[in-house]
Amino acid sequence: MSTRLLKIGLPAAILVAGFLVTVPASFGKVEYSKKEGKNCAFCHVAAGKKELNDVGKCYAEHDHSLTACAPKS
User: Is the pTM of this model over 0.70?
Assistant: First the structure.
């Protein structure tokens, strides 16, 4: 039984661990951050959160462009 567990369980565990490492924890797209030169919290209420702040909502509504979306001071 333990040999069978090693043959099936070990590769399965390695596969699952590989998926967990490669899946980003963020909801934002890295492309947007690179394109605009801003960090995630510029458009999101906090880094790693899906909820958008006012700038993020404007960005989404204006075809992913910050030209019309000046952050409030």
Answer: no
Instruction: Note the helical H segments in the chain.
Output: 2-22, 30-36, 54-61
CB 32 within 8 A of CB 64: yes
Q: What is the distance between the alpha carbons of residues 8 and 5, in angstroms, rounded to a whole number? A: 5
Closest CA to 39 of 17, 16, 56: 56
Burial class (CB in 10 A: 0-12, 13-18, 19+), 56: buried
One digit per residue, the tens of pLDDT, for the chain of length 73 reads: 578 777 888 888 887 777 665 544 445 577 888 888 988 888 988 877 889 999 999 999 998 889 888 765 5
